Amino acid sequence: MTKPSLRVTSLGSVAKVISGFAFKSAEFNETGIPVIKIRNIQLGEIDLTETQCVPEHYLSIDIKYHVHFGDILISLTGSHINQPNSVVGRVARYRRGLPKALLNQRAGKVLIRKPDKCDTGFLYYHLYVEEIRREIAAFAHGAANQANVSPGQIESLCLYLPSLPTQRKIAAILSAYDDLIENNRRRIKIMEEMAQNLYREWFVKFRFPGHQQAHFNDSPLGPIPEGWEVSSVRNASSLVSRGPSLKYSDKEGIPVLNQRCVRDGEISLDTIQHAEPLGKNKEHLYLRQYDILINSMGVGTLGRVSRNVSIIEKMIIHNCITVVRPDVSRVSAPQLFYCIKDNQTRFESLGVGATGQTSLRPEVIKETSILLPTEEVSKQFSHFVLPLWDQVGVLKRRNEVLRRTRDLLLPRLISGEVDVSELDIAIPEEAIA
Q: What's the pTM?
């Protein structure tokens, strides 16, 4: 099969890059219309877990600052290339189901000017190619954590454009992977909500099996069912400890699970740090299944709680993270996790130390009060929730495989190394509209 001819052109010849609107910082709030800032643009996805909002009257601003399904967003400010997790030039596409939103300054949007020459989906994947992202980062100027690129610099990038039908076929192939990933995410969300809701029914509202016949006694946490007790994280855990001091390695070693990986109850494998293997006396600080992780240093992320249900490779827990390992003879792992997660806001307020180096001491976590049910209730809760957690782990590992496969195929499709021009590939109608 003959390799298709590719037309080399600049991005600016087919598209325009704009920076977002300069909102008044005094009007940011927790309710209203979400505003997409550079921190919300992660690599390949939009993360709305920490989103600020503005009043609805801002919907009257120019439509170009509105964010819709399918829009290509790019961070115009970030770190230099030596910090890939926050690097400038991260690109993502606004996915279906996200709320209507507005674009903040230094968060960029790519607008197609010549839809007869360039497909939006193809352009997104073209910008996602690692070589292109590195080229964008190389444009950056400024301080280490405030590196900036301009819309004009991004518009100067070279694009390699096959015919429009071929572009759409390439986008359709890659989108199929992203659609599978998104479907798995939705299934994960449903199962997570089921487990969380069951916890609230049983351990907050006390509507556990047999609650109709339960008698309640007074406790430091208020009335609790007879046979239950108020205890502490210390007494319900086999381990509560910060991660070890690490000797980092640039090329080889054990991956490090750092505080950037702990967010919104989940673990994200954004880490690229590696460290030397731990000594025999510290091997207990390798990550284990059902470990509960709490960010214990920093500002903005202090106190975040997550747990490990899917990571099976050997990883070291960073020394800015406290690991809580459930003692399953005393409490079910899911119950301890949700109980600790309920304390997340409290943990955020208990940090001590200088600005920028706020620390959450392990002793604070150890002394956190928790409710221990009867052994029978604990077993029943595990019986219902652990299969959900295990299925979540399966889906997350499946998504990791899908991402790796997509990312291996991506540069070969964009470069034309893999020719799809003569393949019969169904193109979604929305990709042609």
A: 0.85
